[in-house]
Amino acid sequence: MRHLLLVVFCLSLSQIYAQKGDFLLTHHFPRHSNIDNSNFEITNDNYGRLCIANRSGVLKYDGEAWDFYQTPSAALSLTVDSTDVVYVGCIGTIGMIDFHERRIGYKPILPADSLDDLFLETHYFKGRVYFMGSKNLVIYDIASERASIHKGEFLNIYELDAEMFVNTADGETFVIHDSLTSISPLQTISYSSKRKGNPDLAVGFDNELYEYQNFEFSSLPQNKHIKELGFEIKEIQWVNDSLFVCSTFENGLLIFNKNDEEYLVVTDYQSGLPDNEVYTIHTDNSDGIWVATQFGITHIAPLFPAHSYSHFQGLNGNLTSVSNYDDDLWVTTSLGLFYFDRDTIFENKVYYEVQRKNQRTSSRTSQASSQKQESDDEKPLLKRLFGKKKLASGNDDQKQKKGLFGSIANIFDNDSNVEKVKGKLDKNAKYVRKVRQIPVDVNYTFKQVNGANGKFLSVLPYKDKLLGVSTSGIYEVTKKGAEIIIPESIRWFMVNSKDQLVISTSNLQLKVYKLNGDVWIEQISQSMDDIIVSMREGDDGKVWMAGSSAIYKTSTTDSTFTIEEELPLNNIFLDEVNILNKNDTLYFINSQGYYYYDSDANQVVENTKLEDQIGPAVHHLYDPVERGVWVFNGKVWHHLKEDGSIEKLEYLGLFPDLRAISIDQGTDKLWLITQNNELLKYDPTKQGGLETFNFFLKKVSNEKGEIDQSKKFTLAYDENFLSIELSKPDFLGLLNPEFQYKLEGLHEDWSEWTRSKSIDFSFLPEGSYNLRVRSRDAFGRVEEGEVLSFTVKPPYWQTPWFYAIQIIFFGGLVFFSTRLNQDSSKNRLLRGGLTLLTLVLIIEFLQSAIGSLFSFKSTPVVDFLLDASIAFMIFPLERLLRELMTKGKVKMKIKKKDISLIRKDSPTK
User: What segments bear the compositional bias annotation Low complexity (predicted)?
Assistant: First the structure.
C-alpha cells in the first residue's frame, strides 16, 4: 500500500509539473554606476515604457534606453495617471515626474520637510492620487492641485469594486472618499488586481486567493496548489483574460489559469529567474510579466510562441543540433551528446519507532525543525520594504506543515512511528532510529551520454539503432552509453535507401559503410578532389553531392562508387548547399541563389521564379526530419517542403540567425537553436499571441533644453537646431524596428530606413514644418505616428517691421542729404561726406538683402563673383541716387525720335 501511494503521488506530480519548457525570459538592468537593483515598484506609462521606483530615483525604460530622474530621497512607490504624469512616493516627500522649466524632472507636491514617513504605496484612481505611508495617507486632487492628509497607522491600500480601501495596523478597514469611513469587510485584503471585463482578484491576509464579484468573495480552486506547495503569496495580478500571476516571498512566481484549476507554472531560479526572492511584479499592456529581484529586472513572456529549455541543468557546450526520436529529446553540443530525462527527487527523513509496554502511539507532527524568525524590527530596512505587503502568519503547526509534500507526508506513518520527540524521553518506551525516503520534487535535467564526449554534430536513426555523429567518428548511442564504431573525421553524412552510411571526411575522403549483423563493414573508400558540403539522394537512388564549385551525381554498389555527372555550380564562397527534392526535381540552394537540375538539358539552371516568390536566401537550413529546407529572406522564414508547398512563418522571423531548425515528431512544433545558444520549442499555431507597442516621439530638444511636444511650438531664428529622439518599446529585443521621416516644408521624399532612433536638423530656415515619422518592424509592418508641427521664426532683420524701419531710415538720409545739397551755403565737405555715407549704406543694405536670398555652400571665388554681380546690378541705382541727392532731380536723356513722336501725338491748340 505504501508503494502504491508513492506511485500514485508521483504520477499526480508529473501531471502538475509536466514539463513543457520554461517561458521565455529576458533580463534587464540599468548600466549606471550609481544605480543598483533596489527596485521597489514597477508600472508602465501610456506608451508602454516601464516606470520603476528605484532607491536612487525614478527610471523609465523602453527595452533599450534607460532614462533616470533624480528624486530627493529613495523612490518607494509610483503610479501613472491618464496624461502620462508619473507620481512617486519617496521617503519623507511625495511628488511627480513631469515637464516643467524646459525639462522633465521631479516636482514636489508637498514641501520635503512636511512629512516624516515612508510612502510605500501610490495609487491613481478617478482623478486622484493616493500616497500611503505608515503614518500618513495623502490624497492629491489633480484638477485642483490640492492635497489632504489623514493620520493613522496604515498597513496597505487597495482598489476593489470601484472603491479605494485602506487597512490599518489595528485591524480596521476604511473606505476612502473625502474622509475615511470605517466598514466591516467580508475579507481582509492585502493586495488586489483589476482587469476590464473580469472579476477582481485579491490576496487575503489568510494567504488565500479570492475572486470578488457581485459583492461576494469566493475562494479560488488554485488555493489547493498553494497549500500543497506551502508558499506565502505576496502580490497577485492579471496577465490576460485567463492567466494571472502570484509572487511569493522566497519561491519565485506562480502562474495560474483562471479557467483551468490544474494549470500551474512555477517560474523560479530553476526556470532562469535570477533569484527566488521577488521584490515586486508588474504585468504590462502586452501581457508580459515583469519581476524585480536583487539581480535586476526580468521580463517573462507567457504568451510568446516559444518556450525555453536552456535553463535545465546538465546541458553544456555550444548547441549544434536537436532531435526528437521515439519521444526522447536528444541534443548535441560542442562538448558531447545529451538527452532530456526526468527524475523523482527523494529526501532522507529520520523517524523513530516507539515501543511502550506492547502498545503503540502515533504522532502526526512534522519532523522539520523551525528556525526562529526575525521580527520586523530586526530585519534590515530594505528587506522590510520589499516585504511591505505583509501577510498574517499562521500558528507553528501550520508553518511546520508547509512544504512541497506536507499534505501527504503521513502516508508512510503507522501507529508505532513518531517523527519528532517532544519534551523528554519516555523511560518506559524504546526508541528505534530509522530512515525513510520521501519524494520531494520531480526534477527535469539533461544527462550526458557516457562515452559521448567531444563535438557532436547530430544524431541519426539507422535501422533499429541510433547513431551519434561527431567530428571524430560515428557512435552507436543508447541512454546507458555510447560506443564508437567508425573512427573517422566526419564532415557530412547520410543514409541512403540501400542502408548504406555515406560519409565525407575532412581529408577529402568519401567512404561507405554498412551494418551486417553486428559488424560495420567499410565497403568503399574513395578520394575526392573537392570539399563535399552536403549530400542528398534522389528518387532514382542516385546520391547528389555538392562541392565547392560543382554538383556531383553519383551511384554506389556494395563495392563500387561512380561519379556519373559533374555539373558546375556557383559556390565560390564555400557556402553550405542545401539540396531539396521538390516534386521529383532536385533543387540546390545557397547564398548565390536557387538552382535546379534540368534533366533534359542535363545541367544545373538558376531558378529566378523561386527567388521572386521567396526572396534572396540570406540564411538557409536543412530540415533533418521532413527533409525540407528553411529559407530566411531577411524578414521572414519560409519552409520549402518535398511536396512542393511553401509555408510562411512570420513570427519565426524574430530569430533571424538560427543555427538549427527541427520539426518535433508527431506535432507541429519546432525545435530551435538560436545564435545566443538557446534551445527553444516553438509553436507556430500561437503566432498571434505577441502584442507590440506603438512607437512615439520620446524627446524633442534644442540648444535651450527640452520642448513640450504636446503643443505646437515656435523656434526663434537662433534655435534652428532640433533633435528628436524616438522610442518603440521592444523588451524581447526581437522586433529590430527601423525608422524613416519626412519634414514637410523642407523635404519632398521620405528618408531612407535607418535603425537610428535620433533625428537631427541643423540651420532650419524660417517657415512652418510638419515632421512625419513612421516605423517598420521585423515583420515588415509599417506604422506612422502623430505629426509634430512647429514653426521657425525669421531673424528680426528679415521681418517686415524691420524692413519698414530701414526704409524710413534710409529714406530720411536721402531726403536730408538732398536738402543739404540744395543749400549751397552749407559746408561742402559735410554735404559730400553725408552723400557718400548715404550711398555706401544703401548699397551695403541692398547687397546684404539680395545676398541673404541665396543660401548655398560656395567657394571664395564664387562669393566674389556673386558680390561683383550684385554690385553691377546696383550701379545704375547708385547713379540715380547720386543725381537725386546732389541736384535734387534726375536727369533723363530722351532721343530726338521720341521727342518728335511726343509732339506728333500732342493735341493742337
Answer: 360-372
Stretches where the chain sits below pLDDT 50 are 1-18, 359-378, 391-414, 890, 892, 894, 899, 901-902, 908-909
Task: Tell me which residue of 282, 192, 197, 292 sits closest to 239, measured CA to CA.
Answer: 282
Answer yes or no: do 813 and 726 share one domain: no
User: What pLDDT, on a 0 to 100 scale, did the predictor assign at position 406?
Assistant: 38
247, 234 contact by CB (below 8 A)? yes
Q: What is the model's pLDDT at position 408?
A: 34
pTM for this structure?
0.74
Domain boundary among 400, 430, 463: 400
Q: Per-residue b/e over 761-775, b at no fewer than 16 CB within 10 Å?
A: beebeeeebebbbbb
Instruction: Encode 49-90 in three state secondary structure.
Output: CEEEEECCEEEEECCCCEEEEECCCCEEEEEECCCCCEEEEE
Closest CA to 234 of 226, 224, 242: 226
Angle CA 722–724–728, to nearest 5: 175
CATH number at residue 202: 2.130.10.10
Amino acid at 183: I
Q: Domain of 722: which CATH number? A: 2.60.40.10
* Grid cell locating 585: 526535381
Q: CA 26 → CA 271, 412, 510, 779, distances in Å?
A: 12, 43, 45, 21
Structurally, how many domains does the chain consist of?
5
SS3 content of the chain, % helix, strand, coil (to 5): 15, 45, 40
Here the cell at position 579 is 539540396
Cα distance between residue 222 and residue 580, in whole Å: 50
Ramachandran angles phi, psi of 61, nearest 5°:
-145, 135
Q: How far is CA 316 from the centre of its chain?
A: 26
- What tens digit of pLDDT does each residue of 417-453 get? 777 777 778 777 888 888 887 776 667 889 999 999 9
Judge contact between 178 and 190, C-beta under 8 A: no
**Same structural domain for residues 150 and 265?**
no
Distance from C-alpha of 213 to C-alpha of 777, rounded to nearest angstrom:
41
User: Are residues 177 and 247 both part of a single domain?
Assistant: no
| Domain-embedded: residue 552 | yes
The identity of residue 215, as a single letter, is F
Q: Is 627 left (phi over 0), alpha (psi -120 to 50) or beta?
A: left
pLDDT tens sequence across 544-597: 999 888 899 999 998 899 999 999 887 777 788 899 988 888 999 988 889 999
Provide Rg for the chain, Cα atoms: 41
Residues 672 and 707 in one domain: no
Q: Which residues pair with 597 in a beta bridge?
A: 604
- Angle, vertex CA 797, rays to CA 794 and CA 800, nearest 5: 75
Find, among 221, 228, 305, 294, the residue nearest to 256 by Cα: 221
90 and 124 share a domain? yes
Residue 691: the pLDDT is: 62
In the numeric block, which cell numbers belong to residue 423? 519534551
Furthest-apart CA pair in the chain: how many Å?
165
Q: Determine the distance from the C-alpha atom of residue 109 to the mean position of all C-alpha atoms in its chain, rounded to a whole number.
A: 34
CA angle 175, 177, 180 (to 5 degrees): 55
- What backbone torsions phi and psi does residue 243 show, to the nearest 5 degrees? -90, 145
Q: Is residue 90 classed as helix, strand or coil in its secondary structure?
A: strand
Which of the listed residues 794, 825, 857 is the one where a domain comes to its end?
794
Range of the domain at 256: 187-303+384-400
Q: Write out 470-486 in H/E/C secondary structure.
A: ECCEEEEEECCEEEEEE
Judge if 151 and 68 occupy the same domain. Answer: yes
Looking at the fold, whether 77 and 220 belong to one and the same domain comes out as no
Note the pLDDT of residue 720: 72
Residue 684, in any domain of the structure: yes
The Cα–Cα gap between 361 and 365 comes to 13
Q: Which residues contact 644 (CB under 8 A, 6 or more apart)?
A: 582, 583
Cβ proximity of 336 and 472 under 8 Å: no
Are 649 and 675 in the same domain?
A: yes
